[in-house]
Amino acid sequence: MKNWKARAAELYDGSFRPMFIDGQWCEARSGETITAYNPADGSVLATVPKGGAADIDAAVSAARKAFEGPWSRFTPFERQALLLRIADRFEAEWDTLCLSDTLDMGMPIQRTLGNSRRVLGMLRYYAGQAVAIHGETIPNSFPGEIYSMTVREPVGVVGSIIPWNAPIAGSIWKIAPALATGCTTVLKPSEEASLTVLMIARIMQEAGLPDGVLNIVTGYGADAGAALAAHPGVDKIVFTGSTATGQAIARGATGNLKRVSLELGGKSPVIVCRDADIDKAVPIAAMSVFANSGQICIAGSRLFVAREIHDEFLGRVADYAQNLRIGHGIEETTEIGPIISARQADRIAGYLDTARREGAEVLAGGSRAEGSELNGGHFFQPTIFGGVTDQMTVAREEIFGPVISAMPFDTLDEVVERANATPYGLAAGVFSTHLGTAHKLAHRLKAGSVWVNMYHAIDPAVPFGGVKMSGYGREGGREHVEEYLDTKAIWINAD
Asked: Per its UniProt record, what PROSITE patterns does this chain match (predicted)?
């Protein structure tokens, strides 16, 4: 077992951490800073620049200069080699990256360490995609020696805005396809969790990333984020976060009609059929919500259980929830870490109060977690509400906390209608041992991803994204690469 506490003390000591523009580490133009706190105990980790519109402007200028300068002369094979070097350096520094994420946003260290296959796979997958970009020669209807073809070109400067719940993976989802396609990036991390993203910039710089290809501006969404979305020098904006903020981002992007990709909120259903393997389904359904303390966009927070097994299943899920270990993320036995901030914790507490007031029954948890070892942090017990109706607030709104709303159902047609009766459409889960039932439900559910007898599976080769108010665009797979490319048609008269 590694001494994570000692390493944590060495990693962050409360000092200033500059942001990264045009290959240089710098302060905000205003000189203002933001304090980064450890959500597990409230201690100060560091301060970072409070970037604003002037810093975004400098970063976009640097990204444009790089895009039109040395970076444009990199061959696909050189971009591939760079991505592979970055992947190797990530692998060498993986423990430090994970510890930073755990300290900065609270994710338990065992969960961050377990993401290595996914994140390293992203970098190496997009390295392969860098040399797989090609156009076509297309027969046309013109007589004579007239030829038509297409070439694929990078869209240009990409503005990326990520949330605080998964800084490592969230950053690489945005940066890797940009590098593969020859785009440049200005990335604004969440003000709640910027430190690991700055570490990523350092690792990439040391791997040989040219100046200006990646720029990191720390700051608040209302200032730096809004400026990035509206900037006329940005060709594409990529955003992951709440639906309300995504709508504002899309509105801000209309000034120069920049491309927009949005991965937004969800209120995902998990359906447990009467023929489900209960032993398999209980821990997966529970952790579809409780992983990362419920701070995941795909949380399966609406749990629909066939009436025949409803009481047994909920009893077992409640037992499972009550045995999860809550604690500081750097403890290797911790399964439920802290909530990111006091504001988010208060928001969750408000939903719990509303659920009780509307008549829901607490089957497990239902309050903040307390104890001397949790002092100074923001912790919640894994919570399960029974007696929930589709009209209750906890069944309709995204909570972003460890809260399950459980409801019985009688028929498949009924549960499909209820599961789809939401403005969101990010993900869904189905548990059934009958292949036909699983197929029918998977095809009828309105969601960007449907998992059967599993949950949380995300792979760089498989597209991920939402429908309806959960956004548009995809991350992962060939579809992701296409979103960073333009198609140019070329006609040649050889007569």
From this structure: ALDEHYDE_DEHYDR_CYS (PS00070), ALDEHYDE_DEHYDR_GLU (PS00687)
